[in-house]
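Co-fold these.
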Amino acid sequence: MLAVCGPTASGKTAVGARLAKKLGGEVISADSMQIYKGLAISTAKPTEEEMMGVPHHMIDFLEPDEPFSVADYVRMARECIDDIRSRGRLPIIVGGTGLYINSLVDNISFDHVDSDSALRRQLEEEAREKGSDFMYERLKRLDPEAASKIHPNNAVRVIRATEMVMLSGLSGEENRRKSRERESPFKPCMIGLTCFDRQLLYDRINKRVDKMLEAGLVEEVRRIYTDFKPKTAFNAIGYKELLPYFNGECTLEEAADIIKQETRRYAKRQLTWFRRDVRINWVDTSNSEQIDGIITNCLNIVAKSEIM
RNA sequence: GGCGCUAUAGCCAAGUGGUAAGGCAAGGGACUGCAACUCCCUGACCCCCGGUCCGAAUCCGGGUGGCGCCU
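Predicted complex below.
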């Protein structure tokens, strides 16, 4: 298996399709937002041309108001992998959602615990009423080790950890062990794309947002807002940022600046995530016009990895 | 040319004599079921010069820059 990751605007789409062509592969997207239908512009979903005739999986199949999680992702992506392999082709994971990529590549199992939306809602309400101190203190009692690893302010993680214990009766550490019980069948070749010059990456992000605006980002977002109730898909950058503009609280230009800034911060977080994975072979995409050279670098990495 | 106001971190900004709040940005980091989420960590000797005082970002004088008004 080949995996191509990296921050937003680093060139994953272009590289992914080209590598698939060269290697006889198919792309499995690892992007928590491109799974949704109708978010073509806001999530920079690959266009027909960009896909270059290569099959792309895990894209554009969910309604924007449907819930989705890593567990769902891993389950579905595994099916894609099996399917692609059965046809004798190479699965290429391409995406920027680190959690999805790692969970898939490391074969993290989520089967032993469920998620219970009723319990989740109950805990969230409890958090609102009784405060984060109460929530954290209880987690400390239920699962001291998990608590020690989560900052008290991180309400989302505190709730999830609490939920895990309540649902499974197992501590976070025990659950963690179980999730790794089955060793990963993959020996992935991992490629990380980014501009070694951070400023250049940021410039690219800024320009891309401008292009999105020209392509009709505002209309796309407005359409989703009128057709759907706020859900996960609204976490995509571009949605909450455009709301003040729709309400007449700021100009489009101001909203656009926020979108750019949020996207830059997102890219930084992605880099933080990927940098800690020592398996990743980094390729500089600063010179995006030299796409052939970039592909050559990637192919050299693939050759050394012996996955073919 | 005159008069008034002002000068604190990249930006916004508190402090008004006792040894520099806060927010944003930026950088670093964490993150196994909403992850484009959520969360954590990091920063100045207060425009310059001189003076008063045990002690000044805080008071006084001068300089420089900015803002406003007037001629």
